[in-house]
Amino acid sequence: MKNVSLLKYDQQLHYEWSSHVLEETEDYVLLYAGPGRTLQHHTRGACYTYDSHSLECFMRHEGFTLQLDLEQDGTMRGYSNIGLPPTVTDEEIHFIDLDVDLVAREPGEWQLVDEEEFDINRIRYGYPDALVEQVWHTVAEVKRRIEHQQFPFDGSLERRLIELAQREMPHFL
């Protein structure tokens, strides 16, 4: 089990949750949480409980994540946070969230979101020019990986999430 903390650029806690560690490699940490996972959203002052199966991939050396959510009706959604490479310890993962995200509400149809939030926080937190450049480079890299179906956007994690959900709930799907 690892605690996951997403922070804003000024180190303020944005939101956090806990997930089971499936795999840790030199390149990534893969986490799984089944239905009933709670997320404490500090920015909104709220706590959410999810009934989806969730797989989260934190790239150790790159500034993006991939979260896949498999809903009870079989719908798969993808979410890629753009930020700084995570800090990973035995107990925790800390990820600086730099606002911009790529979201797939339909398989293979990724859309860039939260550009306005990025523009606001760029001023609020004083993002250095090099950081702004890094964010857009990371967005381009994620889009390239999606287009060329490269890990973690190669479909392997979607298949793994379906297998995990079926193992946990044999009548799922």
Polypeptide structure, described:
- With 173 residues, the protein is α+β, with helices and mostly antiparallel strands.
- It is 24% helix and 45% strand.
- The protein is built from three helices and eleven strands; from the N terminus they run βββββββββββααα.
- The protein has a seven-stranded mixed barrel with strand order 1-2-3-6-7-8-10.
- A hairpin with a 5-residue loop joins β6 (53-59) and β7 (65-70).
- The longest helix is centred in the C-terminal third of the chain and has 19 residues, at 129-147.
- The radius of gyration is 16 Å and the shape is globular.
- The two termini are 26 Å apart.
- The mean pLDDT is 94.
Offer a few descriptive terms:
single chain, 173 residues, alpha+beta, 3 helices, 45% strand, globular
Task: Please render the helix and strand layout as text.
Layout: E1 2-7, E2 13-24, E3 28-33, E4 37-41, E5 46-50, E6 53-59, E7 65-70, E8 76-83, E9 87-88, E10 92-106, E11 109-113, H1 115-124, H2 129-147, H3 156-168
Parallel strand pairs: 1-10
Antiparallel strand pairs: 1-2, 2-3, 2-4, 3-6, 4-5, 6-7, 7-8, 8-10, 9-10, 10-11
